[in-house]
Each structure stands twice: as structure tokens, then as C-alpha cells.
Amino acid sequence: MTRASRPQGPTTLRNWKPATALLSASALLTLSACGSNNGSTDSAKRPTSPSTAAPSASASPSPSSSVSVDQAAVLEAYSRMWDEQAKAYAKGDAKGTDLDKYAAALALSGTEDDLKDLRTKGIVTTGAPTHKTTVDVLETDKKVPHAKLTDCLDSAGWRFIYRTSGKPVEMPKDRLVRYVTKVEAEKWGKQWKIVDITPQQHAC
Q1: Is 7 part of a structural domain of the chain?
Q2: Which of 7-21, 75-89, 106-120 has the lowest mean pLDDT?
Q3: Distance CA 138, CA 179 (A)
Q4: 3 touches 35 (CB < 8 A)
Q5: CATH number, position 121
Q6: What average pLDDT score do residues 44-73 get?
Q7: Does residue 5 or residue 84 have the better pLDDT?
Q8: Residue 168 DSSP class
């Protein structure tokens, strides 16, 4: 699975490795929080009405009566991050992708760490997870605009294979395939970037 990457939280630096966690016997129970350290969590929250993106990693929401321009931009950034992340995992390297346009801070470095780990195991991926994402909080009046999202991530179509043989990697039978993921984003200049992802240990 982000953060097949490894971002971390502001005080407890824990690794988020969705892709490699899917390969472990404990599956999602080994996933932990990830985040940024740039002071984006220190002011009062002003929740907006939740808005839903299409359940696809490549969906690009457009503003509508229920989705504002900023909400659509945040959802698109999250969707595009996963598009680029899937490309990176498919070839085992983020080079040549636009991942750094949509992911930042520990979210980006975590993905790179995870890719390095998978390369040592000779593992790449095919397909991609799908998403059903809502915007829970949107704060555009902060010095650094901030948003919180909830994603129902479905990894059923995201498959791990050994690069040389093409054989599938054996997965734990009791792993969670669809699960809740909490996401945080910040607007850096004109671009929203995903800076924190926390896979939850329950299905959606």
C-alpha cells in the first residue's frame, strides 16, 4: 500500500510502509502512523461538509455543488499521488515519476525507503489500489492551508510479484484488503501535497 512509503508523525516517528506491510504475516497490524513536522496541527479545526471522490486511484474530481474548488484540488492531489506511486512500485523506483509533485516531507521519503526495501527483495507490483476518499476538514485560512481526508483503500487489484520470475508474492490469508486510511495534506504554494497517511487497523 501511501504510503508504500514511510512518512512519520510529529512526535512519535513511526514508519509507514504499506507495501512491505502487505507482505508481512501481521499485514496491516504492522502499519503505523506517518506524518510531517511542519506545524500543521496547531490551530483550531474548522470542518467542512465531507465530500466524496470517485472510488478510483486515477479519478480527478471537478468542483460541483457539493465539492468546492479547494476540496477538489486536495482530492486530486491524493489521487495523483497514488497514480505516481503505483508507477514507482511497478518499476521499483520513483525516478521518472511525478511523485514528488504530490507527496512531500516524510510521505515522500517514506515511499523511497519502501521502494528501496522492495528492490532488495526483488519485488515489484502490478495494478494499483483503488480509493473512495472524503474530505473531512479543510482549513484554507491558515498560514499553511491544511486538510484531513479519509480513504477506504482497496488493495485487491494491487499485486506483488518477483521481478525476475514474474511469480506472485505469497500474501497472508488473513490480511485486510479494504481498510480505512487517514490522510493529511498541506498546500505548498499553489500545490496541495500529501504529507501524512495513517492506515487504520480496521476494514471499511
Answers
A1: no
A2: 7-21
A3: 23
A4: no
A5: 3.10.450
A6: 55
A7: 84
A8: B
